[in-house]
Amino acid sequence: MARYFDVxxxxxxxxxxxxxxxxxxxxxxxxxxxDSGFALGALLGNHAGADRIREIRHLDDRHHLTVxxxxxxxLGRYVQMDNWVFRAIKAATPGPYTFILPASREVPRxxxxxxxxxxxxxxxxxxxxxxxxxRIGEPLVSSTxxxxxxxxxxxxxxxxxxxxxHLIDAVYDSGDAGRTPTTVVDLTxxxxxxxxxxxxxxxxxxP
Length: 207
What we know:
- This protein is an alpha/beta fold.
- It is built from 5 helices and 10 strands.
- The chain is globular and about 45 Å long.
- The chain starts with a strand and ends in an 11-residue tail after the last strand.
């Protein structure tokens, strides 16, 4: 079963952060709370971890995984952005958005869309998630924890541990996960395309 970490939402305990970071560094897969429900996460570059995330959610390699970072300034390392895209994303982060963009060479090809060579990116507005990202010092490759057949992300850590604790290595629960998934915006074309309407206001990206 997964190890369960019940952390303070505004000041996660350093010992818990260190233990979850160690699990990730040992090629683990975790469920962690965000502003848009729980997400599954592994370190970027953990190919087996990305495969496990896809297996849990029953996803194929055409479903975009997301590179999750702790601040906007880090995004340019992982995706290519024109000036207008740069400004649009900066105005909307951190927050409940996932942006689809061309991946840079820093993103392993096995984690990119196989034909489009794109990847999702996001900066959550969630203290405990950001604290974990800062502690590990590198991005997570993630996917919203929406189980097969469900429409909404899981939002209760204890339920996650009961239902899929045997499939993951840790649950990082700050008790304040959101219940609405991100708004997904494809910014690879001449105009933004809303692929999923969620917690983020899509009007920011409607031409």
